[in-house]
UniProtKB/TrEMBL annotation:
It comes from the Bacteria. The lineage of its organism: Bacteria, Bacillati, Bacillota, Bacilli, Bacillales. Keywords: Signal. It comes from Lysinibacillus capsici. It is found in: Secreted. Residues 49-248 form the NodB homology domain. This is Polysaccharide deacetylase family protein.
Length: 296
């Protein structure tokens, strides 16, 4: 059997979070118990350690608050480590990426209501056709809304509407950031409790074909921030969107720059098992995929 890296995002009750597909805390616990039985759950820093069983890393993207309140609590109870990756933009620049604003708006408002508020400002036929990329979404208005904010409108067009909706719930964007993301105190506590902390991004942008420019814009700032906060080297990297549409080029072009800057491991969104003894980049399997395959 090969090694496994499981990818998690939100660990929350599906009724409490309608913005995307979360895993409930009880299913999360079952998966970690399953992994603990069949694998040796390790920190990424320990990939070369000799183990009886194949190795497993429990990885988290985006550093949302539920990862502290739910996932970290359960990992501590089960006495296993997790690997959490931070997006520094919201913490330093107090700027929330568009896709998180979209998740939040979709979690608090009906899709149809949002569509009602915006459809007169857009080319409805174009959006209806192009929103097919979200064909996995059962609700048609959800497809339209996601396509509109994530692709059809520029960030400058989407942001004011989305921030207005979010602040109508959380009062201020500051409040939202405090409630939605891990705080510095929480990151420090998780690190001190044996969790691994890595870089996810600054502002959660996909890779573009300029490796040094991308490193300077999306990686360096987060690494420096974490190293100052934790007072130690940060050597782990999980690219946002797995790199995006250019993920294969990213793995090749960015690698020498990452190594030059002290990174030792990277985790992609390519699906599959991996061999932790070899290579820099490792594939992962999404937690919802494990559920579909009947693991828990
Ligand atoms: Zn992410």
């Amino acid at each position: 059997m090969e090694d496994l890296v499981i990818m998690y995002h939100y660990v929350m009750e599906p009724e409490e979070w309608k913005g995307s597909v979360p895993i409930s805390p009880s299913d999360f616990r079952k998966q970690v118990e399953w992994a603990k039985e069949h694998y040796e759950i390790i920190k990424p820093e320990d990939i070369h350690k000799q183990t009886q069983k194949p190795k497993c890393i429990i990885s988290f993207d985006d550093a949302t608050k539920d990862q502290y309140t739910n996932a970290f609590r359960i990992l501590k109870e089960l006495n296993v480590p997790g690997y959490f990756t931070i997006m520094s933009g919201p913490l330093i620049e107090r700027k929330v990426p568009i896709f998180h604003l979209v998740h939040t708006v979709l979690s608090h408002f009906k899709e149809e209501q949002i569509w009602e508020e915006v459809f007169q400002q857009v080319n409805v036929t174009e959006i209806k056709n192009k929103s097919d990329i979200y064909s996995y979404e059962m609700n048609e208005y959800r497809r339209y809304v996601k396509y509109l904010f994530n692709f059809y409108w520029s960030e400058e067009q989407s942001r004011p509407y989305l921030e207005r909706k979010v602040t109508s719930i959380y009062h201020t964007l500051e409040n939202f950031i405090e409630e939605f993301y891990l705080s510095e105190r929480e990151i420090l506590e998780m690190d001190a409790s044996g969790m691994s902390i890595g870089v996810h991004s600054v502002n959660h942008l996909p890779y573009e074909r300029n490796p040094q420019g991308f490193y300077d814009k999306e990686i360096r700032g987060c690494k420096n921030y974490l190293e100052k906060l934790l007072n130690k080297d940060v050597k782990l990297y999980t690219p946002s969107f797995g790199g995006g549409e250019q993920s294969i080029q990213m793995q090749v072009e960015l690698l020498p720059i990452l190594i030059e800057n002290g990174f030792i491991l990277g985790f992609t969104t390519e699906k599959g098992f991996t061999d932790m003894r070899n290579g820099f980049w490792h594939k992962r399997i999404d937690c919802n995929q494990l559920i579909l395959n009947g693991v828990v």
